[in-house]
Design brief:
By secondary structure, the protein is mostly helical. 87% of the residues lie in helices and 0% in strands. The longest helix has 39 residues.
Length: 422
């Protein structure tokens, strides 16, 4: 009986990963179609607006999504399922409140300063809002221990966006591509809400959202600390294209925009593993406080993820080695040494899964201190690259070095602070 249960568990995990990787593959291929369909300047604008939008989602959240990362799994472990769904609906309304206030206070002012920046930032803001709202739904699905529901939601969202965006690239029109991405992302969000049972937005909940927002965002300091930490950690990931665009000429910055898509593939894979393991690790820590048990659980998944990433990069390297990349991508001229750094950065992205152990032991202060250390080190390295006009490979190396030291810093800190207490 135990063997059958283990087999079912393995098959279930494999099916979950297959669905998640399929959705990730569809999203990645969408990006490559955009790179092939748009000219270099338009592709840089697209990559910059989209990544900036994801970055802005952290400002919209300010503790909301981060509050759910730890507290939703704990509430589910305490059999408070209905309360979690109600709170999800209230958080969505609260985030819409914030979005409205930011539109009125920020963009109205910016419109009179620079209309071009106003339009670009408005597009990024809408994409960021949709990303933030979708993250709340994903957090609900993770905490409910329904991985297949989460995987299906990711899959049909990826398919919907692909079906709208890819045909738009045929016209080589930046505005049409971005409009298609916004509309399809909105449609995917509504379907995710319906699929998750989040569909009871009543007047009572709208009223309640104001008081609950203050309670969730004001009294729960752990969510706010985590929000600031994620904000700092996200700066290199989402604003790297903007920085590269300001440092390097158009050919080099376009090359980096395409390289960043390969790095995103590693992040997508690590996030997929995190979707499966993060909430479960927090539940393990909530149940018996055994850090070693949670660490072993996470390390097994990290090893598996690195294996998948290695296979993916071998396939990518083969495409470049045998010169079978599409002609429209050859214009970016990606050298082999860039792929080595991309592979290393992809491996380092799995280190972020360790953060769930820190969160599970209420180590939000450690997360904040580590993120400040990471960003400071990266700023120093990028500043050196800028001052000495170093090639793009040094820019990538700066990302890799700072990420490596961040992971080592977290591991050492957890071992030093927690082990004596256990």
């Amino acid at each position: 009986m135990n063997l059958i249960a283990q087999l079912k568990k393995i098959l279930g995990n494999s099916y979950f990963l297959m669905l998640m990787m399929l959705s990730a593959g569809i999203s990645m291929s969408r990006g490559f179609f955009v790179a092939m369909g748009l000219d270099k300047a338009a592709f840089i604008d697209y990559a910059t607006v989209v990544s900036t939008g994801y970055f802005l989602s952290f400002f919209l959240s300010i503790g909301a999504v981060e509050y759910t990362v730890k507290n939703f799994p704990r509430m589910i472990a305490n059999k408070e399922n209905a309360k979690v769904i109600d709170l999800t609906e209230i958080l969505i309304i609260s985030l819409l409140h914030r979005a409205f206030l930011l539109i009125v206070l920020t963009f109205f002012t910016l419109y009179f300063v620079n209309e071009r920046y106003f339009i670009a930032l408005s597009i990024a803001f809408i994409l960021g809002l949709l990303s933030c709202l979708t993250s709340v739904i994903s957090s609900l699905q993770r905490s409910l221990s329904k991985p297949h529901q989460l995987a299906y939601s990711n899959l049909y969202r990826a398919i919907i966006v692909f079906l709208f965006v890819v045909p738009a690239t045929y016209y080589n029109n930046f505005s049409l591509v971005v409009a298609s991405e916004i509309f399809s992302s909105l449609l995917g969000f509504f379907l995710s809400c319906w699929h998750s049972g989040v569909k009871n937005i009543s007047i009572q909940k709208i009223r309640k959202s104001f008081s609950v927002a203050l309670k969730v965002f004001g009294n729960h300091k752990d969510g706010l600390l985590l929000s600031v930490s994620y904000l700092l950690l996200s700066i290199p990931f989402y604003l790297d294209r903007l920085v590269a665009k300001s440092i390097y000429p158009i050919d080099e910055s376009a090359k980096y925009a395409l390289i960043a898509m390969f790095m995103t593939a590693g992040s997508v894979l690590s996030n997929t593993i995190a979707q499966r393991t993060g909430a479960e690790a927090i539940k393990i820590l909530n149940h018996d406080r055994k850090i070693k048990s949670a660490a072993r659980y996470i390390v097994k998944w990290i090893i598996f993820g690195v294996l998948l990433w290695s296979i993916f990069m071998l396939l990518v390297s083969a495409l470049f080695h045998f010169d079978i990349m599409p002609e429209s991508l050859k214009k970016y001229d990606i050298a082999a040494n860039y792929l080595v750094l991309v592979y290393f950065l992809g491996i380092l992205s799995f280190g972020s899964i360790i953060e769930f152990i820190v969160i599970g032991i209420d180590g939000e202060k450690l997360m904040l201190f580590s993120s400040i250390f990471y960003l400071t080190l990266l700023f120093i390295l990028i500043f050196i690259v800028y001052i000495f006009h170093l090639p793009l490979v040094y820019f990538l190396s700066s990302l890799a070095i700072s990420k490596l030291f961040y992971i080592l810093f977290i591991i050492y800190s957890v071992k030093y602070i927690i082990q004596p207490k256990t």
